[in-house]
């Protein structure tokens, strides 16, 4: 299901249903860049703390344009996994109830080109995306709105260019109070003057203000009526905030479900998920481990599974999703079990071709399918053993920069490292108790 | 003329013709952001040096997506200005002759939304834009290519994981030399191994290397033939670089022409033009003044013209291009002189409607048209006086942040400052001799 702002509410309902009944969710994201340069990419010599700092910097520098989430449910009676893939197009919220919300994100030209090569629709991204706004940012906006609606009196210090404006304003208001007029228009030249009007008029219990084409209208009312209006405005702001939070509600539901989350080379994906849609990233690696235990308590990284399992490495000789996923699919077909994974009837899109490769929804589907096939196919992980996945829980693959390299400034994404050159290194967020994928 | 990579060569020829015969050029750009936050925006209290630092930071943080350039030529016999507007879509070059070129640029969500509101086509931008690559960056690429083609011998230090690879490689090459085989395939696992092969084979005068599907083919040849091949490869790299420089050739031609350049609130435009398409920005404001004297020796900023001229301020009460340009157009039509500006026959697009507002080519056209109308209309600048523009030469308007403000983090673009609140402050790059627009 491709999700834009047009069908987001419907999709959110479907997502809640899917997450409630699934056995695990697979995740993938498309981003606007990875690392500014080689120095910013984790390498073998870095301490764990230094690696985290570099990853945090990447996540805070670049944007997320698409989030793929695919829920897989084991259908016991018929013996297959049912998939529900979502492809969310996301763009940072720009405005809540008339208040601008600014977000800065970086882009790497080569990352944008990568998206283009995979037929990414940039117009759809900007024009149709689901917005997002973290709880913390939403709280700050609400506070600012409350401050704006309830600020009273002249500020302690008025810009010296505005002293005359303030003097005239006070005089006019004092006269207005005495007349029978119900409203008075107050011309303002800029936002600072508008702020002054709101504050100064705020001193009067029986006067209200409202914007009128860049100016301010001052109006009379009872204290009670005015207080009610303030409450109504706050109510309307809260509704706008809920709408602006948009995609964050999906990540909240994913986290609240505490279901296993599977990714392929997933470290940046989950850090982006945390940082963009949940909370600011913690300052240290240690705090991150604790935060992750709450945020997504069980993760499986299929790249780590392959890289750390000699039999899989020898059999497939690659841990790139682009390469291993089609091999596994062919094997599954040959094993006369192409129906090991079927789409839920409401999610008819076929991701089995490589056409949609690198669309986040398709990649999430393929990641989950890869794990299932590794578990179910002969020669894969030990089957029929509930403990099969235990060694892989919460170990996440880290793509490390080669110590010496030659291509000009091209960042290496995990998988370009050969067997003999790099050992697998991993971040262990925390060691959970004995758990398997189906919990 | 809307310019993409498809018609760039044709457009460049037209541009050379237009710049050669024009009296002045007008410029405008569309960017991915202005200032990261209010602290990064120049304000009244900043020293000139501090202001420059902030502007430099803005220019180095954000990208340029479109450059509008409109050349105006006075047709003496018939008494009108002929316009040739170009709208260049630009995107940083990603690859030259197989070598990746990485560029990082920031985006502000609200700036991207602004582009969207003005119907910007993001797909065209990414898929069809003219590339650009500054001379300095091109030189570095060529140097890297020379190094790659001429590096000889084993590096002083070989990564310890690769010692075995190097030992085997040397053995194989020593055997290959003795056989009658013409070529030998050398399997490599990554770019570092490929670098090692190139270097080690480079020790032999009579062996060459070439890439083959991620591996390297080593082949025999005479010393002379191999040297010729290196020269051919360098020649091909130089051709790729010329192509990759793309839009920079336009800015080179603009600068070389030394023609007057007109902009509206043009400071960021010309700094972007310098930084993105010409040379890195100088470190200090003083060095910038000298650099600008060479780069664009005569600039007129129509926003500065209006803001610093009491009669124009009183008459139009705005210096926003969106507002003043249509007023001046209506006046020109009323004065029965709608043909004061006509498009050159090869540039039939009509920019007189406001539909194309904020397309860079249309805004460049409007900026030039605004200056012409200010000069030609009754009540505008003193007409028939060659010195009329003298007080405005090389004075560029600076949009200053209000000292106190209230909207949440919304950057103020020049023009939101009222007359009584802000005096016009200006950057004077340097004072030129007596010059008028027509030189």
Derived structural class of chain A? alpha/beta
Low-confidence stretches of chain A: 403-423, 426-439
Give the largest interface pair and sizes. Answer: A-B, 63 and 62 residues
**Share of β-strand residues of chain A:** 15-25%
Number of helical regions of chain A: 15
Could you give a short account of the major beta sheet of chain A? 7 strands, mixed
Note the quaternary state here.
homodimer
> Mean pLDDT score of chain A, rounded?
84
User: Ends of chain A: how far apart?
Assistant: 26 Å
Described by the principal axes of the CA atoms, the overall outline of chain A is: elongated
* Rg of chain A, alpha carbons: 27 Å
Number of strands of chain A: 15
What is the share of helical residues of chain A? 40-55%
SSE order of chain A, one letter for each helix or strand: EHEHEEEEEHHHHEHEEHHEHHEHHHEHEE
Summarize the structure.
The structure is a homodimer of 439-residue chains. With 439 residues, chain A is α/β, with parallel strands linked by helices.
Sum up the structure in keywords.
homodimer; 439 residues; alpha/beta; seven-stranded mixed β-sheet; three-stranded antiparallel β-sheet; elongated
């Amino acid at each position: 299901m491709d999700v834009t702002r047009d069908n987001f509410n419907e999709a959110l309902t479907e997502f809640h249903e899917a997450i409630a009944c699934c056995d695990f969710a697979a995740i993938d994201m498309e981003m606007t860049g990875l690392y500014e340069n080689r120095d910013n990419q984790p390498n073998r010599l870095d301490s764990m703390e230094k690696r985290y700092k570099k990853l945090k910097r990447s996540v805070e520098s670049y944007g997320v344009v698409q989030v793929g989430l695919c829920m897989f449910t084991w259908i016991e009676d018929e013996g297959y996994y049912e998939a529900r893939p979502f492809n969310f197009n996301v763009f940072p919220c720009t405005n809540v109830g008339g208040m601008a919300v600014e977000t800065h994100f970086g882009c790497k030209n080569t990352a944008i080109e990568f998206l283009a090569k995979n037929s990414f629709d940039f117009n759809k991204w900007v024009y149709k995306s689901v917005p997002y706004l973290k709880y913390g940012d939403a709280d700050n906006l609400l506070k600012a709105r409350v401050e704006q609606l309830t600020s009273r009196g002249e500020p302690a210090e008025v810009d010296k260019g505005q002293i005359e404006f303030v003097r005239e304003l006070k005089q006019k208001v004092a006269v207005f109070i005495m007349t029978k007029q119900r409203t008075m228009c107050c011309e303002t030249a800029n936002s600072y003057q508008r702020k002054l009007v709101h504050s100064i008029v705020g001193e009067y219990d029986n006067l209200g203000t409202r914007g009128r084409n860049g100016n301010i209208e001052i109006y009379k009312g009872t204290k009670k009526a005015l207080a009610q209006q303030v409450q109504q405005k706050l109510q309307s702001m809260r509704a706008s905030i809920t709408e602006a939070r948009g995609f964050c509600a999906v990540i909240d539901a994913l986290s609240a479900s505490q279901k296993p989350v599977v990714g392929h080379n997933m470290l940046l994906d989950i850090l982006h998920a945390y940082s963009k849609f949940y909370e600011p990233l913690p300052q240290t690696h240690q705090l991150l481990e604790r935060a992750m235990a709450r945020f997504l308590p069980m993760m499986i990284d299929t790249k780590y599974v392959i890289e750390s399992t000699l039999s899989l490495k020898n059999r497939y000789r690659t841990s790139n999703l682009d390469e291993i996923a089609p091999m596994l699919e062919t094997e599954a077909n040959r094993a006369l079990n192409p129906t090991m994974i079927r789409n839920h009837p409401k999610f008819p899109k076929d991701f089995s071709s490589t056409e949609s490769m690198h669309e986040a929804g398709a990649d999430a589907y393929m990641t989950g399918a890869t794990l299932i096939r590794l578990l179910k196919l002969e020669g894969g992980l030990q089957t029929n053993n509930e403990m099969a996945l235990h060694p892989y829980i919460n170990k996440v693959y880290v793509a490390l920069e080669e110590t010496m390299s030659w291509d000009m400034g091209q960042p290496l994404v995990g998988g370009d490292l050969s067997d003999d050159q790099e050992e697998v290194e991993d971040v262990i967020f925390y060691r959970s108790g004995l758990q398997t994928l189906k919990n």
